[in-house]
Design goal:
Elements lengths: L6 E5 L3 H11 L3 E8 L4 E7 L5 E5 L19 E5 L2 H10 L8 E2 L5 E7 L5 E9 L8
Parallel strand pairs: 1-4, 5-8
Antiparallel strand pairs: 2-3, 3-4, 6-7, 7-8
InterPro entries: Fosfomycin_Res_Enzymes (IPR051332), Glyas_Bleomycin-R_OHBP_Dase (IPR029068), Glyas_Fos-R_dOase_dom (IPR004360), VOC_core (IPR037523), YwkD-like_dom (IPR037478)
Protein name: VOC family protein
Keywords: Metal-binding
Length: 137
Protein backbone atom coordinates (compact mmCIF):
# COMPACT_ATOMS: atom_id res chain seq x y z
CA UNK A 1 0.00 0.00 0.00
CA UNK A 2 2.93 2.38 0.57
CA UNK A 3 3.99 4.09 -2.64
CA UNK A 4 6.89 6.31 -1.61
CA UNK A 5 7.88 9.07 0.74
CA UNK A 6 5.67 12.17 0.57
CA UNK A 7 7.62 14.37 2.97
CA UNK A 8 10.28 14.52 5.65
CA UNK A 9 9.79 16.96 8.54
CA UNK A 10 12.60 18.73 10.38
CA UNK A 11 12.74 21.32 13.16
CA UNK A 12 15.28 24.13 12.79
CA UNK A 13 16.66 26.69 15.23
CA UNK A 14 16.89 29.72 12.93
CA UNK A 15 14.11 30.01 10.35
CA UNK A 16 15.70 32.54 7.98
CA UNK A 17 19.12 30.83 8.02
CA UNK A 18 17.63 27.41 7.29
CA UNK A 19 15.19 28.79 4.71
CA UNK A 20 18.14 30.31 2.82
CA UNK A 21 20.15 27.07 3.09
CA UNK A 22 17.43 24.79 1.73
CA UNK A 23 15.83 27.14 -0.82
CA UNK A 24 18.86 29.07 -2.06
CA UNK A 25 21.88 26.83 -1.54
CA UNK A 26 20.21 23.45 -2.13
CA UNK A 27 17.71 25.05 -4.55
CA UNK A 28 14.61 23.28 -3.26
CA UNK A 29 11.40 24.89 -4.50
CA UNK A 30 9.26 26.69 -1.91
CA UNK A 31 5.72 25.30 -2.07
CA UNK A 32 4.16 27.15 0.89
CA UNK A 33 5.20 29.29 3.83
CA UNK A 34 2.99 29.65 6.88
CA UNK A 35 3.41 31.59 10.12
CA UNK A 36 1.38 30.12 12.96
CA UNK A 37 0.98 32.97 15.45
CA UNK A 38 -0.77 30.81 18.06
CA UNK A 39 2.37 28.62 18.22
CA UNK A 40 4.89 31.39 17.49
CA UNK A 41 6.25 29.10 14.77
CA UNK A 42 6.89 28.88 11.06
CA UNK A 43 6.27 26.03 8.61
CA UNK A 44 7.98 26.01 5.24
CA UNK A 45 7.13 23.38 2.62
CA UNK A 46 9.91 22.70 0.12
CA UNK A 47 9.92 20.30 -2.82
CA UNK A 48 12.54 18.25 -4.65
CA UNK A 49 12.28 17.71 -8.42
CA UNK A 50 10.76 14.22 -7.92
CA UNK A 51 7.91 15.66 -5.82
CA UNK A 52 9.24 14.60 -2.41
CA UNK A 53 8.69 17.38 0.09
CA UNK A 54 10.68 18.63 3.06
CA UNK A 55 8.67 20.31 5.82
CA UNK A 56 10.69 22.75 7.89
CA UNK A 57 9.33 23.86 11.27
CA UNK A 58 10.41 26.22 14.03
CA UNK A 59 9.26 25.82 17.62
CA UNK A 60 10.34 28.09 20.47
CA UNK A 61 12.62 26.28 22.91
CA UNK A 62 13.13 23.14 20.80
CA UNK A 63 16.09 21.17 22.20
CA UNK A 64 19.28 20.72 20.18
CA UNK A 65 20.08 17.42 18.46
CA UNK A 66 21.91 15.25 21.03
CA UNK A 67 24.66 13.87 18.78
CA UNK A 68 25.89 13.59 15.23
CA UNK A 69 24.67 11.35 13.61
CA UNK A 70 24.05 8.47 15.98
CA UNK A 71 21.12 9.84 18.03
CA UNK A 72 18.01 7.69 18.14
CA UNK A 73 15.40 8.68 15.60
CA UNK A 74 16.25 10.22 12.24
CA UNK A 75 19.84 9.39 11.33
CA UNK A 76 20.16 11.48 8.15
CA UNK A 77 18.37 12.57 4.99
CA UNK A 78 19.86 11.21 1.77
CA UNK A 79 19.39 13.03 -1.53
CA UNK A 80 19.68 10.94 -4.71
CA UNK A 81 22.10 12.51 -7.21
CA UNK A 82 23.57 11.41 -10.52
CA UNK A 83 27.19 12.31 -9.76
CA UNK A 84 28.33 12.58 -6.13
CA UNK A 85 31.69 14.21 -6.95
CA UNK A 86 30.06 16.87 -9.15
CA UNK A 87 27.38 17.51 -6.52
CA UNK A 88 30.08 17.80 -3.84
CA UNK A 89 31.83 20.47 -5.94
CA UNK A 90 28.50 22.28 -6.50
CA UNK A 91 27.79 22.34 -2.74
CA UNK A 92 31.33 23.46 -1.88
CA UNK A 93 31.06 26.30 -4.42
CA UNK A 94 28.09 27.49 -2.34
CA UNK A 95 30.23 27.49 0.83
CA UNK A 96 28.97 24.16 2.21
CA UNK A 97 31.55 21.83 3.77
CA UNK A 98 31.21 18.29 2.41
CA UNK A 99 33.06 15.23 3.68
CA UNK A 100 35.17 13.15 1.31
CA UNK A 101 33.33 10.92 -1.14
CA UNK A 102 33.21 7.32 0.09
CA UNK A 103 32.00 4.04 -1.33
CA UNK A 104 29.58 1.87 0.61
CA UNK A 105 31.24 -1.55 1.01
CA UNK A 106 27.90 -3.35 0.68
CA UNK A 107 26.08 -1.48 -2.10
CA UNK A 108 29.22 -0.16 -3.86
CA UNK A 109 27.45 3.21 -4.22
CA UNK A 110 29.23 6.57 -3.87
CA UNK A 111 28.10 8.90 -1.09
CA UNK A 112 29.22 11.90 0.97
CA UNK A 113 27.86 13.69 4.02
CA UNK A 114 27.33 17.36 4.80
CA UNK A 115 25.20 19.16 7.38
CA UNK A 116 22.45 21.75 7.46
CA UNK A 117 22.86 24.89 9.62
CA UNK A 118 21.66 23.00 12.73
CA UNK A 119 24.01 20.07 12.18
CA UNK A 120 21.35 17.71 10.77
CA UNK A 121 23.30 15.14 8.75
CA UNK A 122 22.52 15.25 5.03
CA UNK A 123 23.85 12.82 2.45
CA UNK A 124 24.31 12.87 -1.30
CA UNK A 125 23.94 9.34 -2.66
CA UNK A 126 24.51 8.09 -6.19
CA UNK A 127 22.60 5.45 -8.08
CA UNK A 128 25.78 4.66 -10.02
CA UNK A 129 28.19 1.96 -8.80
CA UNK A 130 31.78 2.85 -8.03
CA UNK A 131 34.39 1.31 -10.31
CA UNK A 132 37.67 2.27 -8.66
CA UNK A 133 37.77 -0.66 -6.22
CA UNK A 134 38.13 1.53 -3.13
CA UNK A 135 36.18 0.53 -0.04
CA UNK A 136 35.06 3.04 2.60
CA UNK A 137 36.53 2.37 6.06
Amino acid sequence: MLRGVHHIAIIVSDYERSKAFYSEKLELRIVAETHRAERDSWKLDLELPDGTQLEMFTFPGAPERPSYPEAQGLRHIAFRVGDVAATKEWLEAKGIDVEDVRIDPVTRKRFAFFADPDGLPLEIYSDEKAFDGTIAP
